[in-house]
């Protein structure tokens, strides 16, 4: 029995470890276990050389998707293409993919160098070339001096670097990472994030990265696919997702958001939601008129206007209302964060609205104060309150 | 309780344990002086010394044949029991299927069921199949007794094995066979090795079943010893016992040291 | 090839157990299990079946052999003697083994290694060698008799008595008690004792209230091993006992090999088998229950029923 080598792209020592990234295309990809659907007909494309992150809570199907790309999990239905070639019937060892696992998965009975050389050994790379590539890969991750050690003798961060070196040593055109920093502490995570980003830049390989940590996703990714309940909620750049979330889930999962629940309306001047006895206007809307919906604003886009208590009492409630989107409420809590502060403001229907004020622009209101909250329609979006995947356009422009 | 009485208790425990240790080890050692006796009797302690019983052991074809038979059967049992036990352990740990628990119980049953009960049935079976006194008969009979002693350590090491390493090997480009050979097997090897060792010892020590399935033409060493004790008072058996004792002690020491060093390296 | 597939299949993380296996996986599994199944069937289950069959058919079909066994006074005595012998052996082993196992746990690493080795060497030493050694020690005008005479204890007969059998068996089976007991004790969190003492409990009280209950699963497992092994022990009783004081295994041997009474032998084997499994079942259940109770109380030890024997062997492997 011979080891199958499917065009490893003949890596050369001098040309370092760079590779042309491959494209990955998922069409209606589905995984079912019995009656449970882990991944539900997702469409997704990773462009050549792109850093694509699959982001979502645990159980959202992101890891299963990654495992289908790797070949560890059989595809129930749909298509899986790497460089437009269907691969779902290929076993993992024939897919020519690199992968970094959450718990390193280094071979404990081999030295660091042997671990990194392992993929080259499977590809029958001649010894001299093998050594040069291993040295190069270890140098790239900054561990050139530790090749003779056993993995168990290294720290967690070092082990993950070895895993990274092993995954990229044969210049795979696709590199998968399954929560590679999940087992490390915060500080180490931050420095390794930067390193992964640098290596991605140097290699030119297509990275598919799974994480449940939104900050990590924002730091690393060219684009992010947000997973929820086996489906993709939205795909886009970090800015797309943050500024223009197309579902309530994305708005809430990525960063903080303030919500006003009500019923969607469709006015001449754009989308809106009927909430708190008024119509709040938004620049964008995905909800159909008459359906339950929520208006979403980022907390830092809301402005706070203190109400002069005496004047308000005399003149009746809405006399002092500013023009445009304005909601009255009472400050319940204040959290000091150094460069900013957060206010929790309770509005008429009892919901708490989150507001963030930067240190240079404070309204001066204190807990107990009556305030007006205002925001510009272009900073708000109306999104359906109940997710309905079938008829809502969930993707922003690619 | 104050410190003094704690110390008294500790000393008492130490003395007691020393006695138990003596009780565990010392009795077997009497075979050594007896093997060096100069008289053809089991009289103990011996009154004079000689090495004639050792010469006798190595000159007497019936003793040597028994030793050869035991070694041959033992090594074959190592192969049969280790291979089938390892394969079974792999199947038991790697896949969930109906009847797995029942199968595991049956695999371990030879350790529980009194050997003499199985031996009677086996005697009847081998009598019919004309397998009494055959190497094949001895090997399969001992293998079934050795099976649980392989399944248990191999299962333990397979359970301790991180399955994600197999995924890692696969994604590195190793096919299934290469993965098993280069990653799985080296990492579960200690379990397989101790299983093999257990299998050999089980076969090499086995008396009861062997008493039933032996024939005058094929006897294993323990059978020959049993016959010798019950029939005559020939200290050659003490020489044989001493040799076995030395072998087991060295093997146990070596295995213990090996395991201790492995644990330290890890 | 199916074998290799099964060796390496189902590597997918997060695949729920009990999913329908692919046909290739099922065939691979069968291929892996086949050698063991063939061995177990041919050399274990079929022989047991033959033995049971003979019990009810030899020489005539029916319950003759069982009625004979139940009705025979000598056989009842033998069965009773077998039980009392096994019980005495178990008690002796417990008395010697419990403090020893405790010392193994309490000792420092070096002493523990030495104590472990002292249990392992006899465990590995040939049963035949050890039984033979006892023949020499206990023989008439042997060293033990001399010693007892010198101590003024008269001239007691040891070999060919039940006492001799008990002495030999309890020495030979002691490792089988110590190892599972040690395995269980080493999982007990010793800080519990300290905690109990620091709350003002007398050390003896903490031992009885905390340590003893937590070590009970080990006591159960070890005693079970010793008791069951004693019931079916043949070589040692045959060499150290006498036909007058014979145990069930000796009777069995005589019925089959000397008297050629296959049916009666089968009946005795069936009785031995049923008794063994009945004891196993009862003790297993109670161990499991007490383990569950104590796990709740202190996260101490839980012994899976089938791993009781495993502990002793894994103990040996360690």
TrEMBL record, chain B:
Protein name from the UniProt record: ABC transporter permease
Keyword terms, alphabetized: Cell inner membrane, Cell membrane, Membrane, Transmembrane, Transmembrane helix, Transport
Domain (ABC transmembrane type-1): residue spans on this chain: 67-255
Pfam family name, one: BPD_transp_1
Subcellular location, record wording: Cell inner membrane; Cell membrane
Organism from which the protein derives: Planosporangium thailandense
Superkingdom of origin: Bacteria
Keyword Transmembrane among UniProt keywords: yes
InterPro entries to which the protein is assigned, alphabetical: MetI-like, MetI-like_sf
TrEMBL record, chain C:
Subcellular location: Cell membrane
Annotated membrane topology: Multi-pass membrane protein
Keywords from the named record: Cell membrane, Membrane, Transmembrane, Transmembrane helix, Transport
Spans through the membrane: 30-56, 78-101, 113-137, 163-185, 206-235, 267-287
Start and end residues of each ABC transmembrane type-1 domain: 79-283
InterPro entries in the cross-refs: MetI-like (IPR000515), MetI-like_sf (IPR035906)
Major location category of this protein: membrane
Gene3D superfamilies for the chain: MetI-like (1.10.3720.10)
Source organism superkingdom: Bacteria
SUPFAM superfamilies tied to this protein: MetI-like
Family according to the record: Belongs to the binding-protein-dependent transport system permease family. CysTW subfamily.
Protein name: ABC transporter permease
Source species: Planosporangium thailandense
